[in-house]
Amino acid sequence: GDGEGGKMAAAASSTTLITLFLVQFFISSSAAASTPTSFAKWFEGKWEVQIITTHSDGRVEDAPKNGQYVMRNEESRLVGTYFENVTTTSEITNPMRVRVEIDSEFKGVFRTARSTVDLFSAPESEEPELKFKTLFEFDFKLNQNGHYISTGSWHGRQKGVYQFLITSPSTFVLTVMPSGGGEHNSGIQTIMGHKPAKKTFLEQYGPTFLIFFAFIGMKFFRRIGERKKRMRMQRAAVARNTPAQKSETGDKEKTT
User: Fold this and answer.
1) Which of 14, 26, 130, 223 could bond 113 through an S-S bridge, CB–CB 3.0 to 4.6 Å?
2) In terms of DSSP bridges, do strands 77-86 and 65-74 run parallel, antiparallel, or are they unpaired?
3) Distance of alpha carbon 77 from alpha carbon 111, whole angstroms
4) Which stretches of the chain are DSSP H helices?
């Protein structure tokens, strides 16, 4: 009896371990599947950014700026828009047209042009006078921590250097450090981006289904164990009663 019970406990334990392994494998596979394969595919879509400025005296601006990129693939480049908004008044500021020229999977040029029309209703074709300027050139390399990183010159209103770190399939940190000092130094800008990615059905509910099936499997093994235990008890009872019945029959025959 103890041996059978041990086997059932071992089977249930094995089911649990297999399920935990599958959950971990599922999560790892999902993460691996969502690792960026190119900058164009990774940066496509809607990105929300927050810009924090730290001045040379260590002072941090009280009100971070919020902005948004909306990008789409168009042949061998990305095109889209960028704007910042003031939360208190919902005012749109710094409207820009964006073009990202792609040279290879993780190499290219990021260009911007100031827009003078309504970004939400007018297409780029209605602004033929746009003057795109290079903001930065990028060449991402995979570092030892498994993150893509690019560094180089920054060609914004204030020249300097930048570091662009892809921290996950849906987040990045872009740090811009202006060159020179004095009153014209605008401070270090830390631009944190987040992509509101939608999870697939399997990514969202896959681990839950695995745990559910493990629970059902454990109940199944437990029921089989209980059924076998009842059958063993019944056979034992029959075995105990059989000699007594034979003895009673023999006694009756002798009396007769």
Assistant:
1) 130
2) antiparallel
3) 11
4) 2-33, 39-43, 201-255
Helix axes 2-33, 201-255, angle to 10 degrees: 170
pLDDT tens profile 133-156: 999 999 999 998 889 999 999 999
| Start-to-end C-alpha separation, the chain | 43
- The residue whose two tokens read 């209605």 is 126
Would you state the pLDDT for residue 98? 96
pLDDT digits (tens, 9 = 90+) for 150-209: 999 999 988 999 999 999 999 999 999 998 765 556 789 999 999 986 655 555 555 665
pLDDT confidence bin for 30, thresholds 50/70/90: very low
Give the torsion sign (CA, 16, 22, 26, 29). Answer: positive
Q: Which element (helix H / strand E) includes 65?
A: strand 65-74
Is the Cβ–Cβ distance between 138 and 39 less than 8 Å? yes
Nearest residue to 191 (alpha-carbon basis) of 34, 68, 57, 43: 68
The token pair that represents 214 in the structure block? 């493990």
| Cβ proximity of 193 and 47 under 8 Å | yes
